[in-house]
Amino acid sequence: MKSSHPEEYKVGPGAYFALAFAAVFFSGLLGGKEWYGVFDFTTLNGAFGKVVSKASLDDGTLTTATSAFRGTGGSGAMDGFLFALGLIPAVMFALGMINVLEHYGALRAARKLLTPLLRPLLGIPGTTGLAMIGSLQSTDVGASLTRNLADEGQITENEKDVFAMFQFSAGAMITNFFSSGAILFTLIAVDGTAAVPTSIGACIAVMFIMKIVGANMMRLIVRFQTKAPATNPAKGEA
Which of 36, 158, 173, 233 has its CA 20 to 30 A from that of 129? Predict the structure, then answer.
């Protein structure tokens, strides 16, 4: 009798190595200007250069201000188009890397290792593991990888809703938190005590726990909607 498990579920050492590399690559742990930055998604993705947006003459000194390539004061569909244009490199790069890693079995390894954890915790399969790691660093990566999983039929519509809720709460929490809020933990009050009476780890833990809580709330909503009886169409409707 042939095995009931399809061939694609066979996972070798190379698949686990690809999964480990993907986790580090999308996590942001190797970010920075050191040599190991070549193994970090954000570092390789890079950033747009700055352009001069304002110039002023102050006591004979020319002072300039720079902004992103979108400039300042944009509005409407025009500014929205430039914003979307800025997302294209990250999305294309993320999807390209996932296709390469998938070829080496990273998604199969993620499914085998993470499904026993993610299925009872969030009700989603282990194949979302890489998208989950990526979403902690970049909302663009999380959204594009989730869309890719849905298009390939690896997650259902209900699982996509639950996973989207997980990502929506405190989106890209590692990048956004360390770029905007972590500086507060270095401030010292007048009496020499820390200005923020908690740790960075505690804040990250709270955000991650609430992401899980939000995802499970969506999980309950989806479950109740699925069990709800369908209403009869009104007269005259097809």
Answer: 36
Q: Structure tokens of 154?
A: 């690896």
Measure Cα distances from 226 to 47, 57, 202 in Å: 43, 65, 36
Q: What are the start-end ranges of the E strands in the chain?
A: 51-58, 61-67
**Per-state percent for the chain, helix, strand, coil, to nearest 5:** 65, 5, 30
> What is the rounded distance in angstroms from the CA atom of residue 179 to the CA atom of residue 80?
23
pTM over 0.70, yes/no? no
Question: Mind listing the pLDDT tens digit for each residue in 158-212?
Answer: 999 999 999 988 888 877 776 666 666 666 676 767 767 777 777 788 888 999 9
Contacts within 8 Å (CB) and 24+ apart, 56-59: none
H or E element at residue 45: helix 41-45
For residues 90 and 138, is the Cβ–Cβ distance under 8 A? yes
What residue has token string 């299925």?
Answer: 119
Answer yes or no: are the C-beta atoms of 41 and 97 closer than 8 Å: yes
